[in-house]
Design a protein that fits this description.
Elements lengths: L1 E8 L2 H12 L7 E6 L2 E3 L5 E3 L1 E8 L92 H20 L5 E7 L4 E7 L11 H14 L9 E5 L2 H23 L10 H4 L1
Parallel strand pairs: 7-8
Antiparallel strand pairs: 1-5, 2-5, 3-4, 6-7
């Protein structure tokens, strides 16, 4: 067994003697190991640290004394109880004879079949009477009646037709005809021929421009004022149908929403 201690001193010798003294042994009987020698330490080396040594001694192991064995007292055996002779088994009694099964009662008479209830005729569904809104009768289109023009009107229309022919020729068109038709309300110049559709333009803008210039030529000077219109490929009639359908659609929209609706720009003829 090793008994040791860590001791300190001013130097190594003082630390060893201090350790031997603490172990209670002379210095010659102890062993030592120097851990640290005295040195300066601390802040700026102003503190002096002592020497540190490990001092120990080996001691013989102490054997523990063996305890004497003591005899344990024997347990006294309890006297055995005498076994009683087993009683003879009683003979099994004979099983009683099985009783005959009683007959099951006869099944009850089958219930009379239920007569199906007479189905009620389905109630006639109520048909809601929807009163169809009577559509307003379409206004009859005015029938254009051709009339015989006066000499003055014929002369003015011929000037306008010659002017239109000159314009169409300048546009590079050929093989076309300008036919005047005289009605009670106005005079119409009907254009027919190949590629005459190019005269119409976008939304009839080109045709309206030619019509405006031809009307100025026809009504130049004194005399009766005539209302002149120009048509190409029945464009005026098709345009009138389109405007009528658009007017009905926007009118229904205005009634449904309660808001005013703005139409696209139109010339005086289309507004009428």
């Amino acid at each position: 067994m090793i008994k040791e201690i860590i001791a300190t001193g001013v130097d190594a010798n003082a630390a060893i003697e201090s350790g031997a003294l603490l172990l209670g042994l002379p210095r010659e009987e102890v062993q030592f190991e120097i851990i640290d020698l005295p040195r300066k330490g601390g802040f700026l080396g102003l503190k002096k640290l002592p020497a540190k040594v490990r001092v120990w001694v080996e001691l013989p192991d102490e054997k523990p004394a063996r305890a004497e064995k003591t005899e344990k007292p024997r347990r006294q055996e309890a006297p055995k109880k005498e076994q009683k002779p087993a009683a003879p088994k009683a003979e099994r009694s004979e099983k009683p004879a099985r009783t005959e099964k009683t007959e099951k009662p006869a099944p009850k008479a089958e219930k009379a079949e239920k007569q199906p209830k007479a189905e009620r005729p389905p109630r006639p569904e109520k048909v809601e009477k929807v009163e169809k809104a009577e559509k307003p009768a379409a206004e009859p289109k005015p029938v254009l009646v051709e009339v015989e023009p006066t000499e003055e009107v014929r002369a003015k229309v011929e000037k306008a037709a010659a002017y239109v022919t000159e314009i169409l020729g300048a546009m590079g068109l050929s093989n076309f005809t300008v036919t005047p038709r005289y009605y009670e309300e106005n005079v119409r110049l009907q254009l027919t021929g190949e590629q005459i559709g190019s005269v119409i333009g976008r939304r009839g803008e080109t045709l309206d421009a030619i019509q405006y210039l031809a009307s100025l030529v026809a009504n130049r000077g004194e005399g009766e004022y005539i209302r002149l219109s120009i048509d190409s490929g029945n464009y005026r009639e098709k345009r009138a149908r389109t405007l009528e359908a658009l007017a009905h659609k926007l009118a229904n929209q205005a009634v449904r929403t309660g808001r005013s609706v703005t139409l696209e720009p139109m010339n005086p003829y289309e507004r009428r």
